[in-house]
Design brief:
three-stranded antiparallel sheet
């Protein structure tokens, strides 16, 4: 189970399923292509925080895992980070920590602005998907 706490800290469960690892590169490349919002004043960070919290409380496990994996993929692409579900969790990017309950805790303000923009695009996509799904039910 993934759970986010934003301290705007966010918490999620640590071990994503390995199936998501295989599709993460393509999703990350798609979301990072084109224009990405790289301007994140405090109000934009607060809005991003609210959207992540909403996914944590109402989203599916795969949606929550994807947020974590996008953070890992961004660190891999823009640094020397390597993620493996079996890897040592002592070295997570962007000051991400794992608490005693195996929840991932991070502060949205510690994320690079480019990553915030990618997460913003992903969350917008999720909101559109959910909106279309609700419209189809009517």
């Amino acid at each position: 189970m993934f759970l986010f706490l934003l301290r705007e800290t966010t918490t999620l469960q640590y071990k994503p399923q390995s199936s998501i690892l295989q599709s993460m590169y393509g999703l990350y490349q798609t979301l990072s292509a084109g224009e990405v919002n790289n301007q994140f004043p405090k109000s934009a960070c607060e809005k991003l925080h609210e959207r992540i919290v909403k996914v944590c409380t109402t989203g599916t496990e795969i949606e929550k895992e994807t947020i974590f994996m996008l953070m890992c993929e961004h660190a891999r692409v823009h640094g020397d980070y390597v993620y493996s579900p079996d890897s040592n969790i002592d070295r997570l990017p962007y000051l991400i920590q794992v608490d005693d309950s195996s929840n991932i805790v991070f502060d949205v303000y510690n994320l690079p602005d480019a990553l915030k923009g990618i997460l913003q695009k992903y969350l917008h996509f999720l909101e559109e998907e959910h909106r279309q799904s609700e419209d189809e039910k009517k």
